[in-house]
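Handout, section B. The chain below has 460 residues.
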Amino acid sequence: MSKLYAIVDIETTGTGTTRDKITEIAIVHHDGSKITGSYSTLINPQCSISSFITGLTGITNEMVSKAPKFYEIAKEIIEWTEGRIFVAHNVHFDYGFIKEEFKSLGFTFTRQTLDTVRLSRLAFPGHKSYSLSNLIQRLNIQVKDRHRALADAMATAEIFGLIMDSGSYTGTIDNFITMGIKTTNLPIGISLNYILNLPESHGVYYLKNNDDALIYIGKSKNIKNRIAQHFTQHSEKSTKIRQRTHSIDFQLTGNELASLIKESIEIRQFKPLFNKTQRTPSFPYVVIQSENDGIPQLIILKSKDLTPHQKCVKYFTHKKLAENFISNKLFEIGNLLEQNFTFGKIDNPLYRKSLLSNEALSNDTESFKRLFFETIEKTRLWFDEDYVLEAEGRNPTEKCLFLIKDGRFYGFNYIDSSVTINGIDDLTFHIEPTPYHPELDQLIHTYLKKSTKNIKVIKL
């Protein structure tokens, strides 16, 4: 059966899929040899269109004021793209916006995709740019109303037709559509169609053998792409995983932090065969931050003796590693002190000893304390106060809450977006405590240092 295509172009209020909205959409049907139909409509974005965007597209606030809202034409978009390969010039942009609009309605929009930018690079080699404007000019395509959805979709359809007419890119097109997956690499019981229809969302996925035992747990911002990689990579590990995989399962998480935490917990819990490097051993020793006569110091404890309010810096598998950590940290501080000012006699053999034991810090104690805290800040696992991290849930009607309590990660859960939380006692009612592990605190610290744009921090 020959493939059918839906060639799509959209106009938007900007470039951010989660911030901006669609103002116009056009869908052109193509059967691989000719255009067979078209659909287009303005869309009320329910927000203002900037003068810059109006200057680019010609679409004004007045033009969209009486246009249908996205939810009013969502069914038509489904019908016009159903059973067809979603084609666009820079498909990630158009497909991403449409997926986000459907997500806001509580639906998942999934289609096989094909990018004419990638195809054009192969069909028309040697150009510096493969933007739609440049291809229109070089291929002598006649376009009216440039930067309007229907005109651009028709231009893309013409480019697509020229690629198809060349006759030498059918195999490449098939390869792009199938994400490079060869059906011969797929286990019995897992179809290509199943993989191509996996969600392109945050989540944790599970690969199981023919005894239904977990052999690998992974996480990704895009489950479909990540699982597809398992069947296209050629490393020794990928080959072994592929040979033993009999079924695939997944759970959506709604956000990256939930995926990180869930993956970490479940790898330790189930110990899958191919997650050996991610299994963390027990940590019987812990270094904590303490104080002696106003001077900060580092102390080694057995982990089982750690109390909730003690300030955990780092966990260790062996006591010697903890001792080395303290020596290295204080040696680092000592070097900084030497660079900044004279601290007693530099050639004094007791200098290092006095620094390591935090004794005889009579000269510029404040500088030592400042450098101590700056150095430990890079490593410490404890949190200074109780707070909640709020992130996106698995659907528009819920939110994901992470509770930080008594200096450490307590647990996370999904609750209805309409629920109001009144204090920490209310939170602990909704969130079941997670068995403590230092890796979870480290994951959260690392994530928050990297980015907080998708996380709301609520102090309690």
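Note. Residues 339-362 have pLDDT under 50 and may be disordered. Compare this with the example in section A.
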